[in-house]
Amino acid sequence: MMSFAGCGGVDMDLTHFSLFTGIGGIDLAAEWAGFKTVGQCEFADYPTRVLEKHWPDVERWKDVRSITVESVRERGIQEVTVLSAGFPCQPHSVAGERKASNDERDLWPETAERIRILKPRWFLGENVPGILSSENGRFFGGILRDLAKMGYSVGWCCYGANRVGAPHKRERIFIVAYSDSSRQQRGKNSRSIKESRKNSKKQFEGFCKTLLCDSYSIPKLQAYSGVDTVREERNSWQGTSRKHRRETSRTYWEISESPVLGVDDGISDRVDRSIALGNAVVPQQVYPILKAIADIERCGET
């Protein structure tokens, strides 16, 4: 596990727990950013086999409803830095009926309950842009209210995988929620906790102003320009030619196809693989967010 010195001089383990994991796109990006994935939850068989191959030692649940205080404690999982969830998009996709909360596949309530159970310092949600207009905006508003009631400041953004060099647009909504609860501050004195909260709060505000297209919190976030990590990552492609970006991206997908997306068991699984790829989060697309969170957790130390 990668360990970094926190603001108070205490080593910090950056941990990640994923819900609706799929084939592990967010998990891979989390590893790149320095997190250790300690838990995964995936229902479908093919993605589960992919996860078992590439994350064999990670604790895993099949049904999100089975993640309870007791089951988490029994498996030795303690504090979670980031909880990620690419909760089902079908209730909100413009390609479907858009039944939202009336769709049996709507699992936001179960996601919210897992946030209450795991009490992560950060929550990272992913969905399709259609969620913003689902139920005329009421559904997304409900997500924001749920997170605010749990003590989180919330920001969100919408951008495509093409912004980080992928050869396709694939726009996604990313919801980033932050809690300055002292639960993760054990071992620090009161002054250190206060300074850590102050620094983290300022950096989260800057994080929202830098990357996210809107923000919502109680109290309202104030402008701060102290975090440019995400912008730097996002802009790293701007000095290169379009041809170079296409070639670099294509090379990455070709290299990563076998170790990340494959199951070397002699089974074709073409349909299941196509579905899994269609549902997957592009690692490079979410990496800048996780990198910024990791930098905030390290309190600006390099």
Automatic annotation (TrEMBL):
Active-site residues, Swiss-Prot/TrEMBL: 89
E.C. designation(s): 2.1.1.37
Keywords assigned: Methyltransferase, Restriction system, S-adenosyl-L-methionine, Transferase
Molecular function, one GO term: DNA (cytosine-5-)-methyltransferase activity
Alphabetical list of InterPro entries matching this protein: C5-MTase (IPR050750), C5_MeTfrase (IPR001525), SAM-dependent_MTases_sf (IPR029063)
Record keyword Zinc-finger present: no
Pfam family membership, one: DNA_methylase
Domain of life: Bacteria
GO aspect biological process, one term: methylation
Enzyme class: transferase
Protein family membership: Belongs to the class I-like SAM-binding methyltransferase superfamily. C5-methyltransferase family.
UniProt-recorded name of the protein: DNA (cytosine-5-)-methyltransferase
